[in-house]
Design goal:
The chain starts with 9 loop residues before the first strand and ends in a 7-residue tail after the last helix. Strand 28 (566-569) and strand 29 form a beta hairpin. By secondary structure, it is an alpha+beta fold. The chain has three domains: 4-188, Creatinase/prolidase N-terminal domain (Creatine Amidinohydrolase, Chain A, domain 1), CATH 3.40.350.10; 202-356, 3-Layer(aba) Sandwich (Creatine Amidinohydrolase, Chain A, domain 1); 358-666, Creatine Amidinohydrolase (Alpha-Beta Complex). It is globular. The protein is built from 19 helices and 31 strands. The structure holds 2-acetamido-2-deoxy-beta-D-glucopyranose (3 copies). Pfam families: Creatinase_N, Creatinase_N_2, Peptidase_M24, Peptidase_M24_C. Residues 607-669 form the Peptidase M24 C-terminal domain.
Length: 673
Amino acid sequence: MFTGKSIVKILKLVTVNVVFVRSAATDSLIPVTDHHEMSLQRLTALRSLMASQPTVLAAYIVPTADAHNSEYIAAVDARREWLSGFTGSAGTAVVTGTAALLWTDGRYYTQFEKETDADVWTLMKQSLPDTPSIEKWLCSNLTEGARVGADPFVMTKDLWTTLQMALVKANMHLVAVPNNLVDEARVHLNDLAPARPNNAIVPLPMKYTGQSAGDKIKILREKMVEKKVAALVITALDEVAYTLNLRGSDIQYNPVFFSYLVITPSSVVLFWGDGSLPHDVEKQLTVEGVKVEGRGYGEVVTYLQQLAQQEAGDGNRSVWLSCDASEAIHVAASGRDVMEKPLNLISEVSPVALMKLIKNDVELEGFRACHIRDGVAVVRFFNWLHNHLGANKIVTEVQATDKLLEFRKEEEDFMGPSFDTIAGAGANGAIIHYTASREGPQTPILNDQMFLLDSGGQYRDGTTDITRTRHMSGTPTPDQKDAFTRVLKGQMAIGSALFPQGVKGNVLDSFARKSLWDVGLDYGHGTGHGVGHFLNVHEGPSGVSWRPCPHDPGLKPGQILSNEPGYYKVGEYGIRHEDLVVTIAVTKDSEHPRAKNLRGDMEGRGVLGFETITMVPNQRECIDVNLLDDFELAYLNAYHKRVFDTLAPILKARNLTQDLSWLEKECKPMYRE
Ligand SMILES: *[C@@H]1O[C@H](CO)[C@@H](O)[C@H](O)[C@H]1NC(C)=O
Ligand SMILES: *[C@@H]1O[C@H](CO)[C@@H](O)[C@H](O)[C@H]1NC(C)=O
Ligand SMILES: *[C@@H]1O[C@H](CO)[C@@H](O)[C@H](O)[C@H]1NC(C)=O
C-alpha cells in the first residue's frame, strides 16, 4: 500500500460556527469558537518566539517528521498539523513575519483548502512545475543576511545540508533552534502537546526472530571493526526493535518504541523512557547474550557528546550512523558543539537496515505462515461481503473495514492492522491514499461497483499487505475487465520474472507496466516496497519503482517485496492487485515456472525470481482470459490451485463450509473460450 502518515484528525462540525478539533492522542474534542482566530493565535505565538530568539528568525520551518525519520508519526510530533490545522500526512510549513505557507503534493490540495484558513495560510502546490521549492522561495523572498530557523531533530542530515547550502549561497543562514518553537508556542497558549508515548516493550522470542540479539550485535561489532569505528548509533525505531528483538506500540500500526541504541565494542546502551528496563526485557536480552545498559531517552545527546570527547583523546576513530539520522544526532555524535576538532562521521545507509532487509529462514517461514492465516481472513471477508451485498444489505466502506478486522482478529498471533485500511468503493478506489471517513455520512459499497481493498495485518511472525479489487456483482464493464486483466498481467510478469542477482529493484518496474503501456495506460505509483518482519509495512532501502531507490544495495535472496501494479480511472474506479513476494535463488530444479527452461546463470551472477506468499484468489469474472497467453493462463491457474490447496484444509478443519465452497468456486481453473 502506498499510503502515508495520518495521525490526528480534524473534525469540523458546522453547527453555529463552532469548530471542534479532535486529537487522536487524547480523543477529546476541543471546541474553538473561532477557527480564524485560533489559526492566527497559533501563528502569532510562533512569530513572537521567532522574534525573541537570540538572533531574530526571518522564517521558521515546520516539517512533518519526528526525530527518527519515521514514516508515521505520533500525535506528539504532529506539529505542522497543530500549527496549520492541515491534517494530511505530508507537507512542510514555512512561517515568516508576514506569510504562512504550506508545501504539499497533489493528493492533498482539496483537503488543505477544507481544513486551513485561507486568509492565513497559502498553499504551495508542490506537484506543479512552477511552484518554487522551499529553498528557492526562501532565497527569493527573504533579505540577505536573513536567518532561517528549524529544529535539527526533525530534519535528516541530508535535508539539512541541502537547505543550508542553498541558503548560504544566497548569503542567508540556517539556524538550529535548540527548542522546538511549535512546542514552545503550545506551552504559551496553554495547549500542551500530548505526552510522548512510552508504552510497554515486548520481547519477541527466538521462535519468531530466528536470530538472537547477541548474534546480531556480534555481527554489527565485526562490521564496526572493519570500519574502524568507536560506536554505531542506531536512530531508526524499527532498527532498534530489530536489533534487540523487542517490539513496542508507540506509533500506530508500527510495532516500535521511541528509543535510540548506541553500540560500542564494550557496551550496548538503550535510550528509552527514563532508562529503567522491564524485567522480562532484561531477562530475554540476557538469555540472548546481551547486557543492555538503560538510559533516559533524553540523554542521548549528552552521551554522544561525551563519547566524541573520549574518542578525540583516544585516537582518530570515527562514529558510524545512518544518513537518515537527524542533523541534531549528527552534530552530537561529531561533538561539534563541544569540541574544537569534531570527529569525522561515517554517515551512510545503516548496516542494520541492510541486515534486516534479508530475512532469515525463521522470519521467512513466519511470513509464509501468517500469509496463510491472513488469506483465510480475507477470503472469509470477501465471501461475507458478496453475501451481504447479494442479499441487498447495506455495507459501507467503514463497516467493511471493521468486519475485515474482526476476521483478522480470529487469526492466531494477530497484533493489529499494519496500516489504515484503504476500502474504496467505485470512484474512491481511484484515490490512491484513500481512507474512508468515520465522520459524516459513510459511503456504501454498491453492487454495480468495483471495490478496491488494500489492507494488512501485523502478526508476531510477520507483516502482511494485500490488495484485491473485485466487482461486487461480477459484472465489470469491458473497459474495467480489460484494465483488471492488464494490471494482473503486470503483476504476473513481476511474479514470474527471472533476473540477475544484484540488479536493483527499479530495473523490474517496467515489466509491471508493459501490458498497460501497450494501450496507453499507466499508474502513478511505484510497483513494490520492502516489508518489515512484524515491523514497518514500508521498509527500505530496496524498492521496485520507476524512480531509482538511491540506497538499494541490489536484490538478494530472502527479501520481502510487494508486487502491486494498478490502474486508476479518476472519478470512476480504481484497480490494484497486490501480493507480497520473497526473492529466491532459482536453478533448474527450483519450484519456479521458468526453472526448467534455464540455460544459464546470468553470467555467473546467479538467477533470482520471486515466490508469491499472498493467498487470496483474483476475481474470475474480471479476468479476460483471451488477453492472457498460455504461460499466464497456466500461471494463474497454478496460483489459484495453490491458494485452494493451502487454505481449503484450514477452512475444512474449522467447519467454515460456506467459505470453503466460495473459495472452491473462485479457484477453479479458467480456460480460453
Ligand atoms: C515571494 O517572491 C515572489 C517572487 O519574487 C513573489 O511573487 C511573491 O509574492 C513573494 N511572496 C511573498 C509572500 O512575499
Ligand atoms: C590521528 O590523525 C592525525 C592526522 O590525520 C595523525 O597525525 C595521527 O597520528 C593520528 N593519531 C592516531 C592515534 O592514529
Ligand atoms: C466441526 O464439525 C464436526 C462435525 O459436526 C465436529 O465434530 C467438530 O468438532 C467441529 N469442529 C470445529 C472446529 O468446530
